[in-house]
Specification:
The protein is α+β, with helices and mostly antiparallel strands. The chain has 2 domains: about 325 residues; about 140 residues, Glucose Permease (Domain IIA) (Distorted Sandwich). The chain contains 5 helices and 12 strands. A hairpin with a 2-residue loop joins strand 7 and strand 8. The protein is rod-shaped. About 20% of the residues are buried.
Length: about 475
């Protein structure tokens, strides 16, 4: 994220307030304060610029979130449409399965009918076979008698008229029986052929129907597989969009946290500048009073010197001159400047004594299980352990903040450089934003708030302002 310049002139204010009343004030100390105020004004302008950039980033992120949600809604509607189509397809498959079951039942009935017809056909075929044998015998008899019965033999062979009539009737009866047998034979063969054709046609129709239903079911199953694949693709896309949405929300929260931090720093900066300007005014007033005191003292010495010259001889005048020289040396004695901080590394004390449990750098996040920069160090300390201010400074933030839980951030100005220290997951905070603190002062207590897997202190050092984390260990004593 954008670099934000933290500010604090706590050390300068402490230096200024350490000047006792009546002590000579040099123009250099006032100029230094004014120069620092100018630097802080520039840093404040930079903070405003960073806030504007963060606002733009937030707007861009919110726009992406809205686009993501719109796309999620579209995909969700597509999934619902696919699910409706799947439900319809599933119902059609169930209908086809029921139809196939009904068709199978019809095939079973036809198979049973075919079995019954087969028995009937066997009986018919037996009757036809026996008739065929009877007809063959009749034909053989006819052939043996010349192919046909001679009517003249029937007539002259008759004993009387009654016998003639009887013989003629017998011949007709035989001929009628032969004709009936042949007609029955033809009818049975016709019936047999019709039964076979009917059963085969029914079976072919039902089998064709079953094949058609099976084909329709296969098409529906293929459609169902296609819809299942489409649904799986949409669900995969939805999962990706949800993950992207969560990431965008996290970015938005991070931006909002940085906006909160920058607002707090801007407020602390304004407060520090106001206090510094007030102190400059006090120092300038002290300088004016000192200048007036020196002027009055010079006039007094001058009048005393003139009086002594009139009353004393040259030796006394020389002695008076020596005394005046000594007083001038005392009045112009150089002021003692107070160092505002240590030089080199080790400028911070440990905020809480504990074993180092996690160092600075990339690691797999213990909660989210993803690679992420660990922007500070962790010390294993129990809940309620006293938290000390690592150096003199001004509190820029003190409150709950997302994954940090309860967090205190302090702006430090040490040896001409700005630092921000962060202490997170606290159980108690004894300071508020804008409050000046001294190194070693109890400012709260460690804890287990926010995204934390157990009681510990998370400690960060940012060089030049929040957003520029460095390994804190080289900066600790």
């Amino acid at each position: 994220m954008k670099k934000s310049i933290l500010s604090s002139i706590a050390a300068t204010l402490l230096l200024a307030t350490a000047v006792p009343a009546g002590t000579p004030v040099s123009a250099e100390s006032i100029d230094d304060l004014k120069e620092q105020i100018n630097q802080h004004e520039e840093e404040k302008s930079k903070i405003s610029e960073d806030k504007n950039n963060l606002s733009k980033d937030k707007q861009d992120t919110e726009s992406k979130i809205n686009e993501n949600l719109s796309e999620q809604e579209t995909v969700e509607n597509e999934i619902l449409g696919i699910e409706d189509e799947l439900a319809t397809t599933q119902n059609e498959i169930a209908t086809k399965e029921n139809e196939i079951k009904t068709t199978n039942d019809e095939i079973d009935d036809l198979t049973e009918q075919i079995g019954t017809l087969t028995n009937e056909i066997e009986v018919l075929e037996d009757k036809i076979e026996k008739r065929d044998e009877l007809l063959k015998e009749r034909l053989r008899a006819i052939q043996q008698n010349g192919g046909q019965i001679k009517l003249i033999q029937v007539i002259f062979g008759s004993k009387n008229f009654v016998d003639l009539i009887s013989r003629t009737s017998a011949v007709n009866t035989i001929m009628d029986q032969d004709k009936q047998i042949m007609e029955e034979q033809a009818a049975d063969k016709q019936l047999l052929a019709e039964h076979k054709q009917e059963v085969e046609e029914k079976k072919e129709t039902v089998v064709a129907k079953k094949e058609e239903l099976e084909s329709q079911k296969t098409e529906l199953l293929a459609l169902k597989d296609q819809l299942d694949n489409q649904k799986a693709e949409r669900e995969t896309l939805m999962a990706k969009l949800e993950e992207e949405h969560e990431h965008l929300e996290e970015i938005k929260l991070t931006i909002e946290e940085e906006q909160t931090i920058l607002a707090a720093e801007e407020k602390a900066k304004s407060q520090a500048i106001a206090l510094a300007e007030q102190k400059v005014g006090e120092l300038e007033q002290l300088a004016r009073e000192e200048a007036e005191r020196k002027r009055q003292e010079a006039e007094r010495r001058k009048m005393e010197q003139e009086r002594q010259e009139r009353e004393s001889n040259n030796n006394n005048n020389n002695n008076n001159n020596n005394n005046n020289d000594n007083r001038d040396k005392v009045a112009s004695a150089p002021e003692t400047k107070i160092d505002s901080g240590n030089t080199g590394g080790g400028i911070f004390i440990h905020p809480a004594n504990g074993r180092l449990t996690s160092g600075f750098g990339m690691r797999n996040h213990p909660i989210f299980n993803i690679p992420r920069l660990h922007a500070g160090v962790d010390f294993g300390v129990g809940t309620g352990t006293s938290l000390l201010a690592p150096a003199d400074g001004v509190v820029s933030t003190a409150g709950a903040m997302g994954g940090f839980g309860n967090v205190i951030m302090i702006s430090h100005y040490i040896n001409g450089k700005n630092y921000t220290t962060v202490m997170a997951h606290l159980s108690r905070m004894d300071v508020s934003a804008g409050q000046a603190v001294s190194q070693g002062q109890v400012i709260g207590a460690t804890g287990n708030t926010g995204n934390s897997t157990g009681p510990h202190l998370h400690f960060e050092v940012h060089l030049g302002g929040y957003g520029n984390p460095v390994d804190p260990m080289p900066y600790l004593r």
